[in-house]
Each structure stands twice: as structure tokens, then as C-alpha cells.
Amino acid sequence: MDLKEKVLKLSDKMHSEVVEIRNWLHQHPELAFKENATADYICQFLDKQGIDYTKGIAKTGIVGMIRGNNPNTKIIALRADMDALEIDEENDVSYKSCHSGIMHACGHDVHMASLMGTLSILNQLKGEFEGSIKFIFQPSEEKYPGGASVMIKEGVLENPKPNSIFGQHVYPELEAGKVGFRKGKYMASTDEIYLDIHGKGGHGGLPHKIVDTVLIASHIIVALQQISSRQANPNMPTVLSFGRFIANGQTNVIPNHVHIEGTMRTFDEEWRKTMHKEIKKIASGIAQSMGAKCKVGIGHGYPFVKNDEALTERAKQAAIELLGEDRVVDLDMRMTGEDFSFYTQEMPGCFYRLGTANKNKGIVSNLHTSTFDADSDSFKTGTALMVWIAINELQKGL
């Protein structure tokens, strides 16, 4: 039996346990930097497998190593995120979240379960590959500043430093059994925009006696759209969206203060800096010209995800070898963000997608929704592929 057959056989054998692991994790979601029960569950699994690890990195994070033959020849890293979202689950399933208002609506339970299955298989095969696999269970992908940046500051990529890193993420736009890759720029940077407009409120029937914060705020939002529609290079994807507008007045009362929140996304660091300056200039300028003041706050979020070209091509070819060419697709750029980007700033990285949909079962909901779910058949693909990518990179990527 060759190594690929062994991987597929072990993945089949491991599948029911991976499903059980995922279901437990799904039932017990925890928010960013509070993944204590989650971390304990993972550590118990690693202890059972006899896999070395260190816990308590960035509060709840875990890092460890599986060493093959000649363990210092090459080291790669595998990462899974751990936190859930503040969403009340509406799925009617046996593994529905036990915690009201908290749900694994972004598939991090699948990521952890897949990595746990992967580690079990790699541990069984460690006599059949050269080098070592460093693994990272990371807290707080969903909450700024992102667990990746905190773990990196606490030395998760040191002693030893990996040559490259891989991350897998569920993708409900693909049917279970399929996977997707994209070389180069893939996911956008994500900054948060906060605007506070201060004027002089008063009676809506006496507009000449007030400084209308609602009107001024509306002008600011409309004017800011020129940044993406008129200043951005047409070849540079750019998004500037505002989803929160709080003007706590009444039908005939204009408030003294309006609060606005939005998001800014792009793929170029210089243009990102320019956008920051333009937002401040336009918002402050309009407010001042209309007799008000605007305080602009910008939360500098995640950088954009850039997949290393050569590394991603090797991973894609490994997927084709394992799954077949018809089950491997090329992905488009996305304006969503991911703190895996912090790892890709430190070393070559590959962030790929795992298809999780099953139309026949009605599993079609998008990420970050109260009805998101993942078809259990996808876990087998996720585990086998991560094992095969890891072994392939250790053997062929030297």
C-alpha cells in the first residue's frame, strides 16, 4: 500500500471520530479569548494521542510538534482557529449549540476537528516522512486584533520557525468533496471606521436654530463613496461600507450627536494609507463646512491575505493528486478578511477552502448566519487533504 492509499484509508477510519469531535465542538462554542473548555477538550485529545504540545499561548491557544524522520530537515505549520460568533443558532440538529447567543457560524469547529484528525493520522505516519509539523490552535480569529497577531508576538512561530504555513477554511459556496485554491492576493485587508458628528441639536421644526447632525452625517456618507467610486484605481478592488448609523433623536428632535460605523477593504497597503487620510479629510471637512465637528477613528485591522505562488501551486497539485482534478477549483479574490494574513506576513503561506455544502440535505446557508452548517462528508476530505498537503510539502517542497 503506497502512502496516498494509507492516508485515504486512515482518513476513512478516522471519519466517525472527527464527526464526533466536530459535533462536540459545535455544541460548546466559546467566544474570542474565552475558549477554555475548547482548549481543554483539544488538550485531552492530544494527550490521548501522545502528541507534545504547549498550552496557554495568547490565553487559550495551543502549539505543538509532530516530528518525523530527520525532524529538523524542514518544518511546516498547520493552523486552525477556535472561536465562535455571537449568533443564536436556528438549526434543528442534535449537535445544536448549547450556549444561547453563541454559535460556530463560521466553521471554526470544522477547522479544529479536521486538524485534530490530521494530527492523529500524521502521528501514526511519522515514520514515513521527513521533517516536522508544527500545529497551532489559535483563539480569536473573529475579534480584533486577532489571535494570530497575539500568538505571533508570544513567539508561536519561533523555536523552531516553520518554513511555511497552511490554513483551511470552510466554504459553503462549494459542494462537500471539493476544495478551492487561489495564488497571490486572495482576501482583503479589513479596517473599521468610526465617525462621531457633533453639532447642535434641537426641534426638527426649527432647523434654522440647530446644526443638523443627521443631515451632515448623511452628506458625509454620500461624499465618502467617491473614494471607492472616483479615486480608487479600477484595477484595485476597494470597498467602503457603513452598516451602523445611530441618530438617537425623535420624529421632531435632532440629536446633538450622530455615531456611524463602517468597514474599509482593499488589497494594497499604500492605497490603504491613502484611504485613511481621505476619509479623515472628507469627513472632517464636510462637518466643519456645515458648522459641526467630526471625530474620525480608524481601527487598523487585518492585512490582506497573500498566498505564496509556489507554495499554493504545490498544495493545489497535491489536492489534484489526492482528490482528482474535477474536485479542485480556482477561487476568485474576496473582500472578506482573515487574520491568517498575519502569518503570511512572516513566511510563505497558503490559505485554501474546503467545500461544505450539500444541496440534497439542505446544507446551503452562508457563513455568519444562524443556519450555517457543514456536511459531515466534507470532514473526510478536509482531514485527508491537510495530511496529504503536509506530507507533500515536506517531501516535495525541499
Number of helices: 9
The amount of helix comes to 25-40%
Proportion of residues in β-strands: 25-35%
Structural category is: alpha/beta
Order of helices and strands: HHEEEHEHEEEEEHEEEHEEHEHEH
Largest sheet: 8 strands, mixed
The CATH homology group name of the largest domain: Zn peptidases
Distance between the termini: 24 Å
The best one-word shape is: elongated
Mean pLDDT: 97
According to CATH, what is the class of the largest domain?
Answer: Alpha Beta
Number of discrete domains: 2
Radius of gyration: 24 Å
Write up what this structure looks like:
With 398 residues, the protein is of the alpha/beta class. The protein has two domains: 3-188 and 304-396, Zn peptidases (Aminopeptidase, 3-Layer(aba) Sandwich), CATH 3.40.630.10; 190-302, Alpha-Beta Plaits. Helix content is 36%, strand content 25%. It is built from nine helices and 16 strands. The chain has helices at residues 3-27, 36-49, 108-124, 147-153, 213-231, 269-289, 309-323, 341-346, 377-396; strands at residues 52-57, 61-67, 75-81, 132-138, 164-175, 179-181, 184-187, 190-198, 202-203, 239-246, 253-254, 257-265, 293-302, 305-307, 328-330, 349-357. An eight-stranded mixed beta sheet has the order 1-2-4-3-5-16-6-15, with helices on both faces. Strand 3 (75-81), helix 3 and strand 4 (132-138) form a beta-alpha-beta unit. Helix 1 (3-27) runs antiparallel to helix 3 (108-124), helix 3 packs across helix 9 (377-396) and helix 5 packs antiparallel against helix 6 (269-289). It is elongated. The two termini are 24 Å apart.
